[in-house]
Specification:
The complex is a heterodimer of chains A (217) and B (116). Chain A has 217 residues and is α/β, with parallel strands linked by helices. Chain A contains eight helices and eight strands. Helix content of chain A is 37%, strand content 22%. The longest helix of chain A is centred in the first third of the chain and has 17 residues. Classes of the chains: A alpha/beta (217), B alpha+beta (116). Chains A and B meet through strand 1, helix 1, helix 6 and helix 7 of A and helix 1 and strand 6 of B.
Chain lengths: 217, 116
């Protein structure tokens, strides 16, 4: 006997993500899902973003890592609420993990939640968490060929941050080739050139994000 | 790497549907997977083999239809197939396009044996 299911494989994750999304909309909180490799500067970018936006917005961070609370401690040291999720080996965050993390955050008092996904350019792209937008960070030392190797993550991103541009002179990074590859994959996404640790380019990125946050308030 | 998680979801939905139908065994499972997702056919098949051992799905045939990406141009209205890397309109070159196929991750149907 044949049974027609026509059911999404990720039905459970997607349903919970929609619940998260409805909750964020009700509370007027903008949620940004940040995708990148390990070592690309996700946490540094988050710290620079917090510095640029903390006067105008109330911010919290949800950190996803396979293990440890190293990242959330760095955020808390800046006086910002941070929740650490340890996935215990899982290569990506799922919407139920976000749901649990929300229990300890005061959504009424927040304008922005930065979700730092597990460092991985593959698996997190398939999982909706209920965020308002995904962005991806690529750092110069990773190489200009990454859009060709990991197209999916560049396609789901609403913006691409090219981090560590201050190291451009010591790495053979072909920025023209990189920009062209991203443009082919995702013609509408802006690319922000940035060096999170020196502050270069942070203002332009922060202003783009601030516009998005104001739009949901 | 996340294919194991995806197949765990497939197995639980399939098992539930088969049990609800009073089936004793699942013989075929058909999935549609878009080429624009990060799910790889070989890894899905491997995960299925590992997970189905000792269950009512053991020995079932897994059919995976890989779906080619297709977009619609928001400026000239053209619909065109493309690869993973080139999204711009094949007709007019516009960057304003909408993906209409290629992101699927769906369980289409299953085939089950009922008790005699």
């Amino acid at each position: 006997m044949q049974i027609n299911l026509e059911q999404p494989i990720l039905a459970k994750n997607d349903a919970l993500a929609q619940e998260n999304r409805a909750l964020f909309a009700e509370k007027h909180v903008f949620v940004l899902n940040i995708l990148a490799s390990p070592g690309s500067g996700k946490t540094s970018t988050i710290l620079a973003t917090i510095e640029a936006l903390r006067d105008e917005f109330n911010i919290a961070v949800i950190e996803g890592d396979i293990a440890s609370s190293v990242d959330s401690e760095k955020i808390k040291a800046q006086g910002i609420a941070a929740v650490q999720i340890n996935t215990g080996g899982a290569c990506h965050l799922e919407s139920n993990m976000i749901r649990k993390a929300l229990d300890v955050l005061d959504l009424d008092a927040l304008d922005l939640i930065l979700l730092e996904n597990v460092g991985n350019l593959v698996c997190p792209t398939d999982f909706d968490l209920g965020e308002n937008a995904k962005v991806m960070i690529l750092s110069v030392p990773e190489g200009d060929d990454k859009p060709l190797k990991y197209p999916g993550v560049f396609q789901v991103a609403e913006a691409v941050v090219l981090n560590k541009v201050d190291t451009m002179p010591v790495f053979n990074f072909n920025e023209e080739a990189f920009t062209e590859a991203v443009r082919q994959l995702n013609p509408q996404a802006p690319i922000f050139r940035m060096a999170a640790t020196t502050g270069e380019g942070v203002d332009e990125w922060a202003e783009w994000l601030a516009e998005k946050i104001r739009a949901v308030q | 790497m996340h294919e194991l998680g995806l197949m765990t979801g497939v197995m639980s939905s399939v098992t539930e549907a088969a049990r609800n139908a009073g089936a004793v065994r699942v013989t075929d499972i058909t999935l549609s997977v878009g080429e624009m997702t990060e799910a790889i056919q070989d890894a899905l098949e491997f995960a299925f083999e590992a997970l189905s051992e000792g269950t009512m799905c053991e020995g079932a045939k897994l059919h995976i239809n890989m779906v080619r990406p297709k977009s619609r141009c928001q400026e000239c209205g053209a619909e065109y197939e493309h690869d993973r890397f080139h999204m711009t309109c094949a007709e007019c070159g516009s960057p304003f396009t909408e993906l209409i196929a290629g992101k699927e991750m769906q369980i289409d149907s299953i085939e089950v044996d009922l008790p005699d």
